[in-house]
Records
---
Amino acid sequence: MHEAIQHDPNASGPVCQHCGYLLRGVRSAVCVECGRERVRRLTFLDRIEFDAFRAAFDLASVPHEYSDPGKGMLGMATVAYGLSISPMILLTWRHIEAAEAALEDVGLALPVALVDEEEPYCPCCGFALDRALDEVRCGVCGTRCAWYDEHGPPEGAEER
């Protein structure tokens, strides 16, 4: 039994996408607060890319959840008021490898998470990364990460 710790909205680190609980230092693939599986969130600025990812996951039967707030009445309201709400896909940690394989089959890839060399922690789970490697895969959640410094991200990479 763990003692519940109140989430500090000013604290940095990974949070549960379901309940907002701060998960820095938690190795479990399940949130210790709400008990739901931890997920990697993919946010898209390009609707074509979002649709391509969803189609690849559907084709390969990779379990995922998605939210597309740009459709329907909410989407019309956001356009009318000049707001932009990006669609997103949620992948559970245990399905990341299957998602990577599905995307590779259609010539796509999960984005590489960019990490500041001054704070060498995985943005998905919060665990320390080995700075000796140019590109590293987090040993806890499997997220592929690359480094950037005060000069910005490496050429050809984008931050998500």
Note: The chain has three domains: 1-37, 43-110, 111-160.
---
Amino acid sequence: MMEYSVDLLSFRTKSKFVLVLGILLVLVAIGWFIAIWVRKGSASFFDWLFFILLLLNGVVQTSYGLGNPIERLFGKAFIRINSQAISIKTGVFDKKQTVKWSDIRSISYKPANFIVTKKDNSTCMLSMSKLGYSLIKEIKNVVSNMANDKNIPTEN
């Protein structure tokens, strides 16, 4: 049985520039706060707010620079195609779209989505508009091959 799985959040690459920028933001935030504390002896609400925002921005940029998307804290984004179902979740805040192979009558391919006709004559659109062209093409090939194995008609 063939299984195809892609973690859409793993496409981030490491960036030295963003990593250095993140570290500089953290250092500036800490240095600025120390300077305020030494000069005034205390920090106002706005000083605390500015410090926290600058520090948080530095941490997020450092995380991106290391290749770890911060979106992972909020959810997953993936493509999973196996012998039981097609599951697509293109963004961490997007709803997961799943169709079981046993429910599919036919599949039509459009430029950025699949239109699945189910055995109960209802249709379901699996959207891939947030994905790159090469990945969509790869997914279409996998779906086409699995549909052929299961004798499900497909049309372009």
Note: Helices lie at 16-40, 45-65, 133-149.
---
Amino acid sequence: MNKKRIDGFNIRGKKQSLNQPEYCYRCVSDDIAGIEIIGAMEEPLIWECNSCGNHMLKFSEEKTEKLLQRAPEISLTTEEWNSAWQGKPN
């Protein structure tokens, strides 16, 4: 059985919000960011709390998984990932 891509996110619960949530459903922080997945869609697909790292759904789990499946898989080593973060956006 193939592992679902959505399982790579720290999503707790099934609550959805099409608009950026005002607060984290887990820690109630208001420091929320949209996570855009290249190739899935041209806007945030998942919301992330910058305080506790909780991920929140924008769409249902099923729709989110379908959109994630559209995105290409990218394989990076830890060193490549760290190097990319230290560089300027391209």
Note: The chain is about 20% helix and 20% strand.
---
Amino acid sequence: MMKKLMSFLLCIALLCTALPALADLDTAFEAGNLKLVETDSVCTPAVSDFKLTEDMLTVMAELAPEMDVPAMVEEALKAGPPTALSLAPSGNAAILELAGYGVCFFEGKYHVIYPGASRGVEDTCGNRKDFFMRFAGNYRTSIDDYSGMIWSPDGRYVAISNMYVLFGGAKVGILAPMIIDVSTGEMILLDAFPTDKGFGQTVSAACFSRDGRYLYYILYGRFEDARICLCRCDLATGETEALLKSEERAFIPPLRELADGSLLINDNNQTRTSEFGSVFRFAEKDGEWILEHIEGTATTRYASPSRLFYSEKSGYAVTLDNTLLVRPYSFQVFRPEEDFVGLDRYLCLSEEKDEVISLTGAELEAAATAAQELCKDIEPKSRDNAVNALPFRCIEYAVMSPDGNYLLAVTVSTDDPIADYTREVCMIRLSDLAVRKVDGPDARSIALGAYLNWRRAIEWNTDTLIIVTDTGVKTYQFE
């Protein structure tokens, strides 16, 4: 038994390594020798290795009496090794799935995830059972969304925002603010809202403050006087306060805290008639929170931001922009702490060679207009045909490196708007926009799915990448 335990902990430790010093990656990038290789899965633990506390079993029995939790765990262990779903950037924690059941790992110990009752707010609306039953047996699809898992700086807590459920067509009612204490496995309810038969309030985006004291989150849904509400929960006291309400569409994840304590979030307002903005910033000024709309000089009505990345380590931020409101064919690289320098241009990946093309807003509009003209006689007439005719590669999915200096992108290119496509993985160095091809997994196997704007296909928090493929969730490292 001890041998099995040590083997399991060793495998977890190998996956949950601290952030790498990416010198080897820098060298490989310079040499043009980037290759991802699949790593071994974690080992199968023994039944006695799981910590099933009396409190955990009592709460589960109360919420779901039809579930025999100990039997479920024992059966799950027979199904094979657990799947790594998320690794904390701090390198000391992970969320795993074992035959559909959630397991968390923190500093050498691991626990079954369960809906606790001893901490958090009173569940006056019955959300704990709804939350638990939604996740039980369905962890992979429940957290396989745009933001993935949102980790606290020390790796102890993880939050979940679920845009995939929000836009997936299911009337889920409410996804209340909930965090998981990875050191115990307890799911903690931070606030409670009444259940709505149709579309209620849901946590669409969240982030922990840099000092780990607060969880900021956006409530999106039906309010009397607003579309969104920015909230802040003090994790030490459990108190939650509403900081700001607004009618703006500042709810698309992720939410990121900047060095000055302000918060950055995407501007996905596709209802503007003339031009689209780039990002929103929540900021506290003179004791009051305000929402600022940050526009770049390259703003164009042909590009609407769909994804946002930010790294406090490098100071870089990146937006992927949907061209003609369809798919991302352009992106912007800027520095929020340096007066948002970089928002004066659009960047596109050339179809012909591995290089980035810099365009003004007017030049991007001209390219989009020419693509529309080229496809005006193609049936069916659609924006899809027009964007396929652009002389750039579509960035179907992207993720920022742990140090914030690279962007790993899954791209698609085609010379004919109705022809088959070519998909490949490449890496962009943000300092000079150099591009290198990445070998390894078949790019067509990466499971982007119909909701590729919201589903998390790749996580890169440590030197181990988690990639969702058409044959399952797998882990990779650079060779």
Note: Confidence is low (pLDDT under 50) at residues 1-21, 163-174, 195-199, 450-454.
